[in-house]
Design the sequence.
């Protein structure tokens, strides 16, 4: 029986996630395009005084002004495990992911209200996992101890400013991971001198690190304002969730499709994978929000949390397709197709649209010449296709190949294989390390797509003929 388009995409999602063997933890280069790869992300300017050490990417967008961020001089940054991105595509994507993460985290339901209390003092000196709220400002004075296990998540929602006293510190107890600690600040954050901070700071405006303050496993992400350094050290870290988190969070009313996507994510985490932050924030959604987001991820029509789904899929595809190589890949087969009657919004473009654009010309021409690195393509499905320029094309002489061009050029070819043959051909093409093998598979995919278009054209002609006959019969009557 022919597979539905929905079942094809759902299978693609599961296969890609199961095949994701790229280790994301411990090395910033392993996921160099994701938000959590940025130790510093600013909106207007980045300024550094003295010698600061940063392990991770540094990004700025939409601003372009930096001071003291060079690699040499009295005011410079020792940059390890990352690169500088000034209002380029990666910085812009990271800023978009930051906005999404900020809104999701700030919107989480409060479990403990700490308004008026001081972190590190009295009842707020030792805290377990939870979502903590400060209606206005928050201050850290002394030592704040966070206790729990490796999958516990700590969110501090702060209405206005966050400040830390000199020599204050955050200490992690048990197996708590700093990558799971978030301070979401409604205006600006300031770390006092020699503060030893842990966790990610997401500030709406600016972030200032005074002399010798450190963020040892964390990040300074400012959405709109400046990031200011003074002889500091920042080391990035990764977000972690416990295996089974997504599946157990789903409501009892979840569909078969939603359960399948959740199982694929949980299987990846259980196998030792580390989810990018933009994908991991799914664990912070309510059961109902999560169900809708998983529908969006698989291409099903849904009514809510669209931005969460698209950002998560963007980050996921960056992780899968952004880096070549990796350890042995395992393809997990899917047992049967879901019984749900679903509607996919990932329809094909018409023939005229698919014959247009520099992306298609680039892909077609590449089959007879040097093949670009398949693993480095950032392929964006038609559901999430946008207008952002991601590459240029020597073949067509353009600098403006957009994510939508990639979606229209590549998406139908991947899907045609699932309709007419075997979707694993597309998976193998995307993950191929050998250029010659990738070219061979790409040619097969293109042939499937041409056959699919021929079949569809014949069906359309037959339907039009039947309609004309019916209309003629009605006229005679």
Sequence:
């Amino acid at each position: 029986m022919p597979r539905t388009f929905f079942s094809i995409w759902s299978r693609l999602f599961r296969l890609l996630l199961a095949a994701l063997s790229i280790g994301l933890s411990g090395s910033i280069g392993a996921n160099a395009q994701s938000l959590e790869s940025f130790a510093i992300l600013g909106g207007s300017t980045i300024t550094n005084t003295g010698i600061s050490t940063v392990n991770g990417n540094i990004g700025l967008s939409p601003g372009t002004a930096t001071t003291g961020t060079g690699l040499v001089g009295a005011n410079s940054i020792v940059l390890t495990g990352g690169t500088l991105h000034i209002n380029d595509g990666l910085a812009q994507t990271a800023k978009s992911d930051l906005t999404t993460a900020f809104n999701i985290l700030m919107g989480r339901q409060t479990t403990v209200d700490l308004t008026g209390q001081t972190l590190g003092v009295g009842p707020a000196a030792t805290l377990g996992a939870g979502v903590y709220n400060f209606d206005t400002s928050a201050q850290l004075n002394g030592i704040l101890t966070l206790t729990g296990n490796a999958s516990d998540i700590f969110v501090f929602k702060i209405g206005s400013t966050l400040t830390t006293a000199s020599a204050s510190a955050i200490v992690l107890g048990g197996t708590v991971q700093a990558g799971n600690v978030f301070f979401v600040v409604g205006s600006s954050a300031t770390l006092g001198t020699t503060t030893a901070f842990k966790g990610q700071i997401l500030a709406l405006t600016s972030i200032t690190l005074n002399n010798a303050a450190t963020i040892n496993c964390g990040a300074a992400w400012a959405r709109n304002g400046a990031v200011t350094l003074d002889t500091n050290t920042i080391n990035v870290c990764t977000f972690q969730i416990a295996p089974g988190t997504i599946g157990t969070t789903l409501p009892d009313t979840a569909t078969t499709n939603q359960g399948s996507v959740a199982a694929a994510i949980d299987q990846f985490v259980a196998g030792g994978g580390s989810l990018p932050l933009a994908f991991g924030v799914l664990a912070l959604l309510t059961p109902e929000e999560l169900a809708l987001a998983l529908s969006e991820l698989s291409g099903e029509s849904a009514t809510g949390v669209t931005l969460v789904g698209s950002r998560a899929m963007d980050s996921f595809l960056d992780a899968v397709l952004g880096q070549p190589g990796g350890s042995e890949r395992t393809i997990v087969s899917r047992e049967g197709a879901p019984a749900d009657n679903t509607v996919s919004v990932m329809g094909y473009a018409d023939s005229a649209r698919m014959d247009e654009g520099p992306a298609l010309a680039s892909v077609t021409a590449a089959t007879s010449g040097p093949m670009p690195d398949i693993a480095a393509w950032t392929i964006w499905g038609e559901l999430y296709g946008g207008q952002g320029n991601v590459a240029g094309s020597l073949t067509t002489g353009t600098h403006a190949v957009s994510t939508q061009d990639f979606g229209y050029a590549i998406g139908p070819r991947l899907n045609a294989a699932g309709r007419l043959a075997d979707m694993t051909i597309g998976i193998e093409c995307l993950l191929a390390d050998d250029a010659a093998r990738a070219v061979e598979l790409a040619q097969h995919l293109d042939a499937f797509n041409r056959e699919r278009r021929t079949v569809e054209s014949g069906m359309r002609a037959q339907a039009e003929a039947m309609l004309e006959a019916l209309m003629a019969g009605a006229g005679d009557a």
